[in-house]
Amino acid sequence: MSQAAEATAYAVRMEEVTRSYGSVTALRGVSRAFPRGGFTAVMGPSGSGKSTFLHCASGLDRPTSGSVLIGGTDIGRLSEAKRTRLRRERIGFVFQSFNLIPSMDVEQNITLPLHLSGARADPRWLAEVVGRVGLTDRLRHRPSELSGGQQQRAAVARALITRPEVVFADEPTGALDPRSARDVLGLLREAADQTGQTVVLVTHDPMAAAWADSVLFLRDGEIVAELADPTPTTVMAHWEIL
Ligand SMILES: Nc1ncnc2c1ncn2[C@@H]1O[C@H](COP(=O)(O)OP(=O)(O)OP(=O)(O)O)[C@@H](O)[C@H]1O
User: Residues with Cβ within 6 A of ligand 1?
Assistant: First the structure.
């Protein structure tokens, strides 16, 4: 595939990615491409390499060997400053612990990634994103005045405000009640279906993984199984044989 076609078909491609920490090899030669608009869940037992996988795929960390291409750009060849810029402009992150800035209101938190890259918010897109996450009447509130579910919805809006190619979500529902978890997963599903974002979700929860198009199972730093069109039951059945 030509570089241009590659950049069009896949938002992220990992080729033989290995990440070692001293004598511990957390990822072993993982190859995987994430098609545009696809929603993939990554599961695996504790210590199987899920966080390392997400950090390498998103350019937060660099592989010890192998390569990661984001939109056709080999991020291993970028300087630290360019990698940071690429992450800021083309990738959205959602974490378990929300990571909102307490002193900023909801609107300031949501638009922060734009301000960091010196861009202005497009008022129509801001209104659309805020409407999607149901926080239109909460824009002047501080994070401490919101429920956990509302805070995570603000974090999803912050991840979407730059219209990123990829959204990486690391246990985004780990701290939420089931209803708020469904809301957040529904927003990620919508980002893939309606605006063509590529979503990569790391989770321990079979119910959460079932929102994805496919589930990758990691064990000892390798992809050992993949499940298409998952349901909570089929995810659990796979989980049990890991
Ligand atoms: N900074 C680090 N230094 C040394 N070892 C590390 C480091 N980060 C991860 N590891 C090791 O790499 C392996 C994979 O860790 P990782 O955090 O990716 O797993 P995980 O599947 O995300 O685990 P969990 O579900 O418990 O968060 C583990 O053996 C871990 O101890």
Answer: 21, 24, 26, 44, 46-52
Q: How does pLDDT run across 134-176, given as a tens digit for each residue?
A: 999 999 999 999 999 999 999 999 999 999 999 999 999 999 9
Quote the ligand 1 centre to 179 CA distance (angstroms): 30
Any idea what the CATH number is for the domain that residue 223 is in?
Answer: 3.40.50.300
Q: Inter-axis angle of helices 148-160 and 178-195, to 10 degrees?
A: 10
More confident residue, 48 or 1: 48
Domain count of the fold of the chain: 1
ipTM for this prediction: 0.96
Q: Would you say the C-alpha torsion 225, 228, 233, 235 has a positive or negative sign?
A: positive
Identify any residues that bridge with 217 across adjacent strands, giving them in sequence order. Answer: 43, 225
Query: 209 lies in which domain range?
Result: 3-241
